[in-house]
Amino acid sequence: MAEPIAALRGVTVDLTGRTPLGPLDLTVARCEILALVGASGAGKSTALRLLAGLQSPGAGLVSRAVGPGRTGFVFQSPTLLPWADALANVALPLELAGRPRAEARGRAAAALGAVGLGDRLDARPSELSGGMAMRVALARALVTAPDLLLLDEPFAALDSVTRRGLIEDLHALWAAADPRPAVVFVTHDVEEAVYLAGRVVVLEAATGRPVVDLPTPGVLPRPARWRADPACRQAVETVAEALEAAMGLSVGAPA
Amino acid sequence: MRRLVDLAPPLFLAVLLLAVWEAACRLLALPSYFLPPPTAVAAALVEAGPRLAASAWVTFVMAVQALVLAGLIGGALALAVSLNAAAERAVRPLAVALQVTPVVAVAPLVLIWAGLDHADRAVVALAALVAFFPLFSGMLTGLKSADPDLERLFDLYGAGPLQRLWRLRLPSALPFALEGLRVAAGLAVIGAVVAEFVSGSGATQGLAWRLLEAGNRLRTAEMLAGVLCLTLLGLILNAAVALTARFLLRR
Fold it and tell me: Which of A109, A154, A166, B111 would disulfide-bridge A74, Cβ 3.0–4.6 Å?
């Protein structure tokens, strides 16, 4: 197997007033889409921050084969600068990296076009719907052509139609990128995980340890109708059972 | 039309109160040194108008100087302190101590230090002293108000301290700093008046001095006219800050 883009080996994280998380072992291969599912508080966001290099582990090893500025991150909320328009928000990562303003704005306009917002470049975040603001956040994460794209329950707050549209778009953007980035995607929606990802990892409640690591059938990217495929239904069922088991393990478990 | 409907209730109340006041003065035959009727206050306002306007200008300039001084010191200190948690812990108690110390009690000291020949400097210093806390506190709160996920985003893209300050923390701080300025503007006028009262020598010719002088001569109508000028001054400063805020924060 080629060198992974990012990996956690025996990583523990100390949390104030809680059982420490871990030990976590997780490997992210280049160009794959990996979904992390788990109960609330299972350390999904912490795992993402470790992979992003935003948080240092209490013990263990985080390895990242990602160039500086080549990690994209989409948070649970759009997290845009409220005083800046869509174009300036998307250009931000490039301008922080010292790219010339004209180049940054040009690439930002292209990234916004790719998420279907080419006509809303000068809109402030307050003028955008939740789904559109999320698209801006996605464009901002993709504008640096990242090697590693991390998404922390990015669509959880959206209605199901908007959400499905964004998932399709994410799928298409990933498939069209050259080279394709590795994507790690946190969700508590099992169907979303199975449809979008090539591999689903279930995290145990409380400790956040990966307990199930399941490749999903078929080849990415998948057509939208694959959601109705028996293979998809079967995989959703398997992951849902694993998730229930992982959550059940925590009940009455010693702290 | 809409505005007229909005304005009618407060206008009606003001007119009613003035009418009651006028009627009470006439019916009870109150001596004018005790409580002059509104018409007498209006007359005094016209008669003493030029003097009061000149004094209002003096007070206004001193209050604005104090605001600028307090804004520079408070803003710079908040900026320095926001970069270091230990510095904040060191400075916070001092800032609070400064805030709770009554300005009247400190005024005589500051007058001595400024020199009796420079009472105007003492007035500016004391007004700046009371205006300092809301400016410092507002700026510091604002600088730390940025969304933690946005701070993470800046970490992710390796932003330098100056980039973070300029592109994230200062814009986040702006609404808080402006709210601090609005509070400070009112306090600066109060501080200037208190300081002038304490200096009481006529070395500064601000509105407080006019009040003292008119009081000494039992010209009560002129005193009330002076108070009215102070209220107007406070309102004007407040409106100026509110307009600036609306201009800067339009989104």
Answer: A154
Predicted local distance difference test score (pLDDT) of residue A254:
45
Domain boundaries along the sequence of chain A? 1-66+147-255, 77-146
Dihedral of alpha carbons B141, B144, B146, B149, sign: negative
State pLDDT tens for residues B47-71. 888 888 998 898 899 999 999 999 9
The HSE-up count of residue A134 (CA atoms within 13 Å, CB side) is 23
Query: H-type helices in chain B, by residue range?
Result: 2-28, 38-47, 49-82, 85-100, 103-114, 119-143, 148-156, 161-164, 170-199, 207-216, 220-249
Say how many C-beta atoms besides its own lie within 10 A of residue B216's C-beta.
8
Q: Which residues of A touch B (CB under 8 A)?
A: 49, 52-54, 68-69, 71, 73, 75-77, 79, 81-83, 92-93, 96-97, 124, 126, 144
State the pLDDT at residue B139: 94
Determine contact: B6 vs chain A, CB below 8 A. Answer: no
- Size of chain A, expressed as the number of residues it contains: 255
Please, which pLDDT band fits residue B203 given cuts at 50, 70 and 90? confident
| Integer Cα distance of A10 and A63 in angstroms | 11
Look up the ipTM and state it. 0.88
What superfamily in CATH does domain A1-66+147-255 come from? P-loop containing nucleotide triphosphate hydrolases (3.40.50.300)
